[in-house]
Amino acid sequence: MRNKLPCTAKKLSQIEPEMIQSVVGAQVFQLGKEYQSANCVKILEADEDQILSEVTGPFGLYEQTIQLKGGSLLTKCSCTSNEQPFCRHCVAVLLGYHHPNGARENRGTEATLTSEEIKAAEPKTSPLSVNLHHITIFLDWLHDAIGALDRGQSLPEAPLIDPGDAMGWIRAIQNLHTRWRMSEDKRSGAEAEVTKLEGQLERLMKELESLPRETTQAQSTCEDMQDALTSSQILLGKLSDMGKERDRLQDELRSTTEVLLKKGAELNSLVSSLKQVTAVMQSTDPSLL
After folding, report:
1. According to DSSP H, which parts of the chain are helical?
2. Which pTM does this prediction carry?
3. Cα separation of 213 and 288, whole Å?
């Protein structure tokens, strides 16, 4: 992040902490002061016109270049902060440059030391400094986390710090975010289920709307079937009467047949008698032939 702002100071040492606070505001100034108090600042090279430095952040080192040039203060930091007119890390570097026993006295030597020598030369930190350092790292992580949430992204990885209040706060925020994501998943599932149920309800409503027409058709069909059943019952009654009449006629026909057979037998007997009489008459009077 690069920034440029007008500056009346002729030397970097003339930029007092009060001037810095009036420009960046109380909150950013306090964050930068915590970085500086926690010994997070390392000034690699410095003079009255330029400072090259590093500030320990939650995910590594942030590099700064601060210049006083042409009546302007030029600041550059490798962080992604959107703090204006310059970030907390540059604030920490300017404060460290003014610190009477801080990194300002070590400028010009750290650039030639190895990383092991730098680590060995670092002043021992008190528990208070360690806590401030952790809080500073936590605030940096929180800033990045808020930015990630605004962009709809996941939380950044937790910084590598010792267990303590700061790590507890980070874990608590991560747990809350996880629970929120789970609730969001449940809400999305519930919304999908509601949408599905709404579709089913709409389909049922359409089916209910079609039921009156189908009911009317069914009633008409039932009435037609009832009429057909009534006609069939009438026809069955007629068929039953016809069956009875048929049985009566059969009985009459049977009786008539018996009578005719009896009359036929009598007629046959009469014919036989007539033949006998004729035969007798012929035998007594041949002229009758």
Report:
1. 17-24, 26-37, 88-98, 115-121, 127-150, 165-284
2. 0.41
3. 100
